[in-house]
Design goal:
Radius of gyration: 19 Å
Strand order of the largest sheet: 5-6-2-1-8-9
Number of strands: 10
Number of domains: 1
Distance between the termini: 56 Å
Largest sheet: 6 strands, mixed
Oligomer: single chain
Helix content: 25-40%
Length: 163
C-alpha cells in the first residue's frame, strides 16, 4: 500500500510540471572592445511578447506572423526600451535595434550600444514580461573584460549589477 501511495504522489507531482507553462527569457550582452560596442541579443517567446504588448498598450500585434507590420516592430522596441534599461559605468545608455529573426517560437532580437570602449560595471533593470506573467524569469548573461557573469531577474528582483 505504501509503495502504491508513494507512486501516486510522485506521479501527480511530476505530471503537474507538464500543466504549468515555463516563463523565461534570455538577454545576452557581449562587449566587443575592438568595435567599442555592447551587443545585446534577446530571446523571448513570441506569443508571450505579443500578449505583453496587448496587455501593456492595448494593441494587438502580430510579431512573428506573416501579418507583422513595421508598427508592431516599433511597439516591440518601445516596450523593450521601457522595460529593459542598461547603465554602463554609471551612465544610462540607449540601445539601437539592429534586426530580429524568428527561431521556432522564439523571437531573437539584436541590439547594440556604440561608443563603449571599456566596461567597469553594468546595471541592468529588466521588467520585460513581468507585468503579464508573475512567474517570468529574465536571465542575463554578460561577457565583458574576459569574464562571463549572469543574473536572474524576476518580478520580485528586477535589477542587478555586474562588475
Amino acid at each position: 500500500m505504501r509503495k502504491t501511495l508513494g507512486f501516486i504522489i510522485i506521479f501527480v507531482v511530476l505530471s503537474g510540471f507538464g500543466w504549468h507553462k515555463f516563463y523565461v527569457s534570455i538577454f545576452q550582452l557581449h562587449h566587443s572592445p575592438d568595435k567599442k560596442r555592447l551587443e545585446i541579443t534577446t530571446r523571448l517567446f513570441v506569443d508571450d511578447l505579443n500578449k505583453a504588448l496587448q496587455d501593456h498598450y492595448h494593441q494587438t500585434t502580430h510579431l512573428g506572423e506573416e501579418t507583422e507590420t513595421a508598427a508592431d516592430i516599433a511597439l516591440m522596441n518601445r516596450y523593450l526600451a521601457e522595460n529593459f534599461t542598461i547603465e554602463v559605468n554609471g551612465q544610462k545608455k540607449s540601445f539601437a535595434f539592429v534586426s530580429k529573426e524568428l527561431d521556432n517560437n522564439v523571437l531573437v532580437g539584436y541590439y547594440k550600444i556604440n561608443d563603449i570602449p571599456k566596461i567597469k560595471s553594468l546595471k541592468i533593470l529588466n521588467t520585460v514580461l513581468t507585468q503579464t506573467y508573475a512567474e517570468q524569469q529574465n536571465m542575463i548573461q554578460a561577457d565583458f573584460n574576459g569574464k562571463k557573469q549572469s543574473l536572474l531577474l524576476t518580478a520580485e528582483k528586477t535589477s542587478g549589477v555586474l562588475k
